[in-house]
Structure formats: structure tokens, C-alpha cells
Amino acid sequence: MDAQLKKGVLELCLLQCLAGEPKYGYDVIQTMHRHFPEVTESTFYAILRRLAKEGVADTFQGSVSNGPVRKYYRLTDSGRERLAKMAEDWRRLREILETLGIA
User: Average pLDDT over the chain, rounded to whole?
Assistant: First the structure.
């Protein structure tokens, strides 16, 4: 798959993973890795860090347990807006591809 196309798809999928309740970063990565086994964990973490830097995702520290402090992610209002826009763009792209007989 083309790298640029995959980058956008991965961002859309990560945003969707974060759309519900806050999630522990490692759990998000494991979910994504099941669907995209060829993508490295570092790639997913890089996208999560970028989303946080852009204000689309928020991070916070979870309760301390017997192990290290866990970093959790959740969407901001801006993140929900981006997810809605990207999902709509994806739906329109699918319609175009179907019209062209590609999908």
C-alpha cells in the first residue's frame, strides 16, 4: 500500500479507536497491530504523539498500579471534528471508487 495513503488510513483508524472512552496507549497499538500487522509499533506511537501535539488527542496519566504509570489517550473536541471530517471524506472516496468500478 502506498505510504501516503496508508498514513491517512492509519490516522483515521487511530482516531476511530479513540472515539469512545479513553484508552491506554498500548491497548490502542495492539488493536491497530491486529489489523495492520506490517506496521511497527513505533509508527503508531508517532501518529499518536503527533495527534496529541496537534491538539486532536489529549493524554493523561492513569492510576499507578504495580507497574509503570500508564499513558491514556482520548479525543478532544477538535479530534472528534477531525474524525467526522475524515470519515465523511472516506465515504465520498468510496462512492467515487465504486462509481469507477474499483471497489
Answer: 91
Residue 37 Cα to chain centre, angstroms? 15
**Model's pTM, two decimal places?**
0.88
Q: What are phi and psi of 62, to 5 degrees?
A: -80, 180
Residues of the chain with pLDDT > 70: what percent? 95
The Cα–Cα gap between 18 and 72 comes to 10
% helix, strand, coil for the chain, step of 5: 60, 10, 30
Query: Cα–Cα distance between 59 and 76 in angstroms, integer?
Result: 10
What 8-state DSSP symbol labels residue 1? -
What one-character-per-residue DSSP string does 20-50 give? SS-EEHHHHHHHHHHH-TTS-HHHHHHHHHH
What phi, psi does 9 have (nearest 5°)? -65, -40
